């Protein structure tokens, strides 16, 4: 089991915007660390009730989709090994209009409570969706407003950060996590988000064919430049590392 310097299980907090962000973007990484014994808490700012996909063929509507997506997210969490799930219950597609100070304070209080070794969120300008950028901005402010131990990273899409210079970053700013051994868990999480993934035929191919659609690595941008990291292939700061529990 991965433990910190206090001989406690290491903790990861992911503050994201919608059900499926955790699976579609960084599911392999979450599954990898969960399998290593990291205690993971996931925050979904919304319930994804304004999503355009309603199943294929459509079987949901605006009245039923929020409950369905919560069920799907809980199933995805089971597939990935995420132990704790929280919703902020902000209306989907309105995170950018939520009171930023209140949202930042709420996340800061959660960080104080959990005291994570690693926190994941969206980049405030590279998030790709207004809700992503807004929750990322608030989460980043919450993390940086105090001198916190641990590390902050921004999740990224696909292999975009194989060429970080295009986005104003260098390779030293990018963490490259090998998730090959955990792609089956990622695929299971994709399939758990049925109303969103049903329309993508490749997700429902036989496992050996579907798995070829995933890359071997997931990429993260360092959000706390002073965090001391052992190498660019492990998100956890080196000062928190101790030997694995001999009983595991």
Textual characterization of the structure:
A seven-stranded mixed beta sheet has the order 3-2-1-4-5-7-6, with helices on both faces. The chain has eight helices and seven strands. It has one domain (11-240): Rossmann fold (3-Layer(aba) Sandwich), CATH 3.40.50.10320. It has helices at residues 21-24, 27-35, 65-80, 100-114, 130-144, 183-192, 194-197, 207-210; strands spanning 11-16, 39-44, 84-87, 118-122, 151-155, 174-178, 217-222. Helix 3 (65-80) runs antiparallel to helix 6. Strand 4 (118-122), helix 5 (130-144) and strand 5 (151-155) form a beta-alpha-beta unit. Helix content is 31%, strand content 15%. The protein has 248 residues and is an alpha/beta fold.
What's the short story on this structure?
The chain has 248 residues and is of the alpha/beta class. The protein has one domain: LmbE-like (Rossmann fold, 3-Layer(aba) Sandwich), CATH 3.40.50.
């Amino acid at each position: 089991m991965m433990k910190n310097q206090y001989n406690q299980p290491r903790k990861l907090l992911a503050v994201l915007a919608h059900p499926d962000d955790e699976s579609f973007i960084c599911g392999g990484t979450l599954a990898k660390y969960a399998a290593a014994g990291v205690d993971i808490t996931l925050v979904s700012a919304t319930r994804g009730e304004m999503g355009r996909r309603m199943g294929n063929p459509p079987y949901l509507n605006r009245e039923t989709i929020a409950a369905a997506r919560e069920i799907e997210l809980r199933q995805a969490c089971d597939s990935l090994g995420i132990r704790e799930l929280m919703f902020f219950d902000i209306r989907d597609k309105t995170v950018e209009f939520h009171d930023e100070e209140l949202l930042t304070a709420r996340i800061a209080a959660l960080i104080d409570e959990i005291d994570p070794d690693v926190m994941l969120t969206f980049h405030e300008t590279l998030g790709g969706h207004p809700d992503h950028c807004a929750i990322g901005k608030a989460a980043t402010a919450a993390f940086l407003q105090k001198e916190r131990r641990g590390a902050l990273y921004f999740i990224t899409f696909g292999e975009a950060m194989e060429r970080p210079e295009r986005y104003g970053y260098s390779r030293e700013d990018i963490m490259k996590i090998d998730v090959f051994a955990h792609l089956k868990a990622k695929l299971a999480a994709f399939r758990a988000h049925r109303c969103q993934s049903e329309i993508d035929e490749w997700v429902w191919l036989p496992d050996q064919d579907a798995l070829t659609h995933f890359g071997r690595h997931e990429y993260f941008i360092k959000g706390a430049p002073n965090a001391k990291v052992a190498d660019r292939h492990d998100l956890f700061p080196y000062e928190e590392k101790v030997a694995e529990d001999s009983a595991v």
